[in-house]
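The authors assume throughout that readers already know how a fold can be written as discrete tokens. A single example would do more here than another paragraph of explanation. An entry of this sort, consisting of the sequence and the corresponding backbone structure tokens, reads as follows:
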Amino acid sequence: MHPEQAEPARIVVLISGSGSNFQAIAEACKSKEIDGEIIGVISNRPGVMGLDRAKQLDIPCSVVDHTEYSSREEFDGKLIHEIEQYGPDLVVLAGFMRILTPDFVRRFKGRLLNIHPSLLPKYKGLHTHKRAMEAGDKEHGVTVHFVSEDLDGGPNIIQAVVPILDDDSEASLKTRVQQQEHVIYPIAVKWFVEGRITMIKGDAYFDSEALPETGLQLNVN
């Protein structure tokens, strides 16, 4: 993707739940903050709120129900087929709760983004807010990264660093982190469609400069 490209970038979003990050990106596209268009939303679970959001926004949506497939490989094969119907420039994982096969990741390598609620490489996997608090960390946050074949791996693009307050509960920390998800994910998508971020030989680059392991950091008071 390059700024001189006349057509808006074609974006497909994969969801498993409420779709709040999908909506944040959709709103940024609608306001022209992102020179892109979400052309399809795919959920691996039927009946989730994210599908309702897509319908309200008149964005085509479909379900590839993982429970109907006998293996991860079979499910991912169907998912690849469904995505490629749209011919996307970018595939965005927005709360998509499936571990993807290496074949899937290779198919969309360099144009596959994910968001994870921790300061990666810390706390890969689930229950990140609880784990950060139990470890006595003073800060937590959220990371947008390119997807590699490692779970919650791939080079980091941008992180929002959120302080853990003395009176925080797991719920209050989660809420504040989610607020930052809706800030940094549209930023990362904007950078991608403008050609400012790229993945080269497993590393992330911003304006042709290699990014640090953390990616760019946004500190939140």
About this structure: The domain at 1-108 is CATH 3.40.50.170 (Rossmann fold). The first helix runs from residue 20 to 30. The longest strand covers residues 36-43. Helices lie at 20-30, 49-56, 72-84, 102-107, 128-134, 170-193.
